Amino acid sequence: MNLVEKIYQRNEKREQVLVEARIRKPIPMKSKLMDGKKNLIIEYKRQSPSGFSDPVFRNVQEFGQYAEKFADAFSILTEPTHFLGNYQYGTGLQNYNKPILMKDFVDRESMIESGYKSGFDAVLLIADFLNGERLEQLSEYAASLHMDVLIEFHDLINLERIPTGENVMCGYNRRDLKTLAMDGREGEALDLMLDRDVRVLESGINRENYETFLKMPFQAYLIGTSVLKEPEFLMEIKKRGK
């Protein structure tokens, strides 16, 4: 059993949000990413199993104050054990009036409901670990709460599992979550994704490769570690991408 499978196994014991902290209606993330621009989804996390730790920003509020000028949407890690996340991290970012993605290992409706109550606008689902039927069920449940879903894949064959619902965005993760290795095949993935109306590229976007990726027909780029280490990188990539 790999690390991600162990995280999913612990979901049954996760505490869920009981108190409503949403202060506004969900902002449609999918339609935002279809505005014809190169959108940036900027991610906050405190650590990750891939070796990242100690972000420049001391807390999510400080992150929001800085990243708001550059982000078209936020992504927040809420998994508590390996990423030191918390559902509450999404609550304070509602004031910026930008879509907020709940980045977690979601496999049940109660986690989506917790995200909704905490102010998130979209949730991440991972096709490499959930079958097609479950992806569709969870996407439909999110839709019932007026939330979008970003469904990512790494193994190219698993793109076939991703439904084409009105609230579904499609993402290619350059990192293999089963091994944590970065072995991106973004060109091949993009060829398979061209009929999807929202295509997102995730993981390992940095100073060495971002100009190449910005030339590809993705609607959005999810960037975390590079920004959390060097916040000024946002100024550079925003200037090139817009």
Radius of gyration: 16 Å
How much helix, percentage-wise, in residues?
Answer: 25-40%
Stated plainly, the CATH topology is called: TIM Barrel
Structural class: alpha/beta
Overall pLDDT confidence: 94
| Through-space gap between termini | 42 Å
Which H/E pattern describes the elements?
HHEHEEHEHEEEEHEHEHH
Number of domains: 1
Largest sheet: 8 strands, parallel, barrel
SS elements, strand count: 10
Q: Which residue ranges are poorly predicted, with pLDDT under 50 across at least 5 consecutive positions? A: none
What's the number of helices? Answer: 9
CATH H-level superfamily: Aldolase class I
CATH architecture: Alpha-Beta Barrel
Beta-strand content bin: 15-25%
Write down the CATH class: Alpha Beta
